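2024-03-11 09:14:02 DEBUG pipeline.ingest accepted 1 chain
2024-03-11 09:14:02 DEBUG pipeline.ingest length=335
2024-03-11 09:14:03 DEBUG pipeline.predict start
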Amino acid sequence: MNKTKELLWILVMTQQRISLNKCPNNTEAQNLQMVSHFHLMSLSENPELQPFLFVLFLSFYMVTVLGNLLIILAVSSDFHLHTPMYFFLSNLSCSDICLISTTVPKMIWDIRNQRRVISYVGCLTQMSMFIVFGCMDSMLLTAMAYDRFVAICHPLHYKIIMNPNLCVFLVLASVLASLVDSQVHNLIVLQFTYFSDIEISNYFCDPSQLLNLNCSEMFTKNIVIHFIGVFFGLFSISGIIFSYYKIISSILRIPSTDGMYKAFSTCGSHLSAVCLFYGTSIGVYIGSTGSNSPENCAVASLMYTVVTPMLNPLIYSLRNRDIKTALWQLQRRAM
């Protein structure tokens, strides 16, 4: 009986040592109760660049918020733009404002104060908000692709299919799916018992970076993360690809060149936004997996957290005659 107890004790101690040895770089695991904050990475350690970075990202943030607010005001003030496409566009602009507000103000504050510490609760909150609004962007772009598919492939039934109830349902479904994605990541992080480090190799609490700080291997964590990523990623991308496959097939059947150009021009802005969003996201993912430099990964992350929300209003205002007309009328009313 005593020998059996000794064997069980040896097995327990061996398992604990194995779990601790799984920490990268053989660092000692830190108990979750003792981790009250994380350290974020700086884009540059050069003190002379800090004022330039402060002004640069403050300008990016102001331009993004102002541009997306103008889109929302233009859509809400012009009754000609009270259509499903511009309803989705105004929600996308709102999501972009929230997405950039999740990361950039904290970064600007850190650059100004030269202090890159974020609390444990603050890190989880930032990660949650980033996932919610990032996922909402993806889902709304998919809904906009479906809207263009119905408008071009089924023009006679467009108003019947894209009724206000369906539009509101698609937006609410996007919000719900984003909240589910965020809560799944939160539940996984809250189950972490050990962290291998408190240094996050990015300028914000990137979900992938935070999940990699887990000291022990979690089979369930890996399965759930990959399942969520594949579900939301493939659902959005496959929906957009299918919609544009049908759109291009319908456009190619139009006999006149002017008709083809007019039909394709109605979805040109959306296609540009899709290419920008998914192009930068995929590029960042490939670059981060192929590069061992945290600085390069952090700089690449700026593409979809800062550049994409900033360029979306420019894409829709420069390539869309209706938006330009609404903005011009809005300016005349203000004057």
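2024-03-11 09:14:41 DEBUG pipeline.report The longest strand covers residues 37-40.
2024-03-11 09:14:41 DEBUG pipeline.predict end
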